[in-house]
Amino acid sequence: MPSETTKPIRYIPLSYNHADSHASALRLILTLNPHWEGPGNQIEFVRFTDGITNTLLKIINRKPGLTEEQIDNESVLMRAYGNHTEILIDRERETSSHALLASHGLAPPLLARFHNGLLYRFLRGRPAGHEDLVTGFVWRGVARRLAQWHAVLPIEAASATAEDVPNMRHVDVDLPKLKKDGISVITPQQPGPNMWTVMQKWILALPTATEEQRARRLSLQKELEAMVRELDDGQGLGEGGLVFSHGDLLCANVIVLPDGTDGADGATVADEGTATVNFIDYEYATPSPAAFDIANHFAEWGGYDCDYNMMPTQAVRRAFLTEYVQSYSHHRGIPEASQAEIVDRLYKDVDRFRGIPGLYWGVWSLIQAQISQIDFDYASYAEVRLGEYYAWRREQDGSRAAAGEEMPLRERRWAQEA
Predict the structure, then answer these.
(1) Into which CATH architecture does domain 1-122 fall?
(2) Residues 6 or more apart from 85 whose CB is under 8 A from it?
(3) Within the chain, which residues score under 70 in pLDDT?
(4) pTM for this structure?
(5) What's the CA gap between 216 and 227, in Å, rounded?
(6) According to its UniProt record, which protein family does this protein belong to (predicted)?
(7) Architecture of domain 124-418
């Protein structure tokens, strides 16, 4: 078992400049790897993403005589943060999470931080598409890896302070001191950062310029309060009902490793018919109920277009959870005789949480609609995701059936047996 303490992360006192991408990225990589300068080196930049949320560059040194695998093994990923993303993401906690994951072999090594981003080792493999997520070959690998996260990572590591990560500005908010427009913040059962407090911060960050915006924020706050009363019961897996969750397990954050390779931990080898996968992007990693992390992943089976025909049926969810519990039990030393009961309980919990990702990402999208410059219709996406939550609510309270209305596709697919 790796030590829970990690060595200090190197800090490079430079910034990435979006307007001068090549020169600023080159300064960063040569500061990190001064031996990449001079004859015989051929530095190249491969742009994966570019926008106000993040810029992700793969930096390679195509030295003569090296194979593609050797080049990849020495490559570096540079993630530069976008403007205003501190409203949504605690970058200090993201860095701490990455370092912790790396110490457990669950993330590529973190090489250095700079003023507005991170440098870390490239992870070979291919990002999954949402079509991959619904295939047994991939979802079995996801179930095993996610269970490993939930079983071995300590949730107290998500409560790092500015002192734990030098040179990082502390952006966490003391929620109990906040009260806006009559909103009293929630008090979850477990202290410290978790998915409930994240949602609370996001709701408090919603725009309030108009009466309509203020009314909507108050309405969303009431939904959050109801969710905490109903679901924050401390009864799930982990410590006080919380595990260290990825929080954003969409298809692009699932990396399918090449055949015949081990995972980031260097030990987990997939069986025939099961992919070895790793997870990337830890911006939203925080303690949460395991059922939320799993339900949130299932919500991503529909992809960015929210194709609800792809949602897992009852049989598929139970098979996924059976795989998950076997892996979780292996890492926690839980006897086989207890596993069926855990699957049954977790199945019910995931069902209870199936609407919460819609509320979570719906609020997130309302904020993105105000701050993001990416060419994406966040306002419409917010309505789609919030619609998932309210559709679930109407199933729970029976109002949809009482009104004689047809069950929405997402709920219908979720209720399907096979």
Answers:
(1) 2-Layer Sandwich (3.30)
(2) 52, 53, 54, 91, 371
(3) 1-7, 49-53, 83, 157-181, 260-272
(4) 0.89
(5) 17
(6) Belongs to the choline/ethanolamine kinase family.
(7) Alpha-Beta Complex (3.90)
